[in-house]
Amino acid sequence: METGYGPLNGIRVADFTHVMAGPSCTMMLADMGADVVKIERVPFEADDARNASDPYWINGVSATYMIVNRNKRSLPLDLKSPEGAAIAKRLAESADVLVENYRPGVLDRLGLGYEDLKKSNPGIVYAAVSGFGRSGPYGHRGGYDLMAQGMAGILSVTGEGPGRPPVKPGVPLSDITAGILLAMGICAALRHREKTGQGQMVDTSLFEAAIVQTYWHSAMTFATGATPVPLGSGHPLSAPYQAIRTKDGHVTISAGGWMWTKLCEMVGPELEHDPRFDTNEKRLENVKELEDELGNRMSARTTDAWLADFEATGMTAGPLNTIPQMHADPQAIAREMVVSQQHPEAGEVKVLGLPVKFSATPGGPRNPASTYGENTRAILGELGYSAAEIDGFVEKGITATER
Questions:
Q1: Does 175 participate in catalysis according to the annotation?
Q2: Which domains does the chain have, with CATH numbers?
Q3: Out of 15, 31, 96, 175, which one is annotated catalytic?
Q4: What is the C-alpha separation between 277 and 283, in angstroms, rounded?
């Protein structure tokens, strides 16, 4: 089915994903115009994506489900039944892309693994995201965002400083990064298929997604053999590059090169030639003292006052927003990164937009997350099942239509 928008218009995706990493990937594909058919559990009460673990609701609908499942069509299936697995296989044989994030081997046992599907659909791009990937000594393990960040070293460099307890970033960094990487890999594989007619397996993991976040820190270790340590809001290669306190909050600044001189002119000219801070290397060595000196001076004025001065001088700086403040930021709104949708059950809801803009084939959130089973009859009809067959599937509990 064509969606009528986006650069992936006309591409069908069979979505066998749940939780965060996989749904983030298929959401991006859907936002770019792909027809994403999301397989959900039967019965409704068993679907953990919509129910079991989510404490956040809008008029009885899971908020976290809606934010990563917009633009998709819902097809509940009992994959443990032979009929449900057969329907899933017919869907996969009609698809350009299959995305899954089950533990390795789960879909293989249902006849929905890559080796089986490529026999009947040699052009399929089969994309998988898991805790550790499909090879190597950990390939059989499951994994979550927290353990991926810990094993990749991210928790060792996050926090207030050496000797303090480990701190996890407040966002699911490896989950969402893995979704982005998988979407990128799928697009590349579709390009290869366009040239050769051949599909392929695309495989990434939360572990690898966390590892690629360590480019700076790995470069330091490769060069020196040293073990990076937490730096608070600081940067391992430049100072000041961090959050500095103001009268009413904090401002984030980056003041390398000529901007260090400009910053000193604004907050204290004597700092420029202070022997503790007169080179970037010395500022890095004495970064805590630098933070205190800047904070003592900048705490005399408000964040907005400092930001106005930085803007006037061409320096880079920004406020330390809360999530609600980010939602209200005029730049986020202008770039359509916060948009409203009308959901049939939840009413008006807000979601985050597509972070990539296309001049010729614009995409983004067009439709709200489907209600459970909303699209069952349409999808099964497209796959060639008759109305009577669909009724039979519903009666047997193999699928479900709208509640």
A1: yes
A2: 12-212+330-396 (3.40.50.10540), 250-319 (3.30.1540.10)
A3: 175
A4: 5
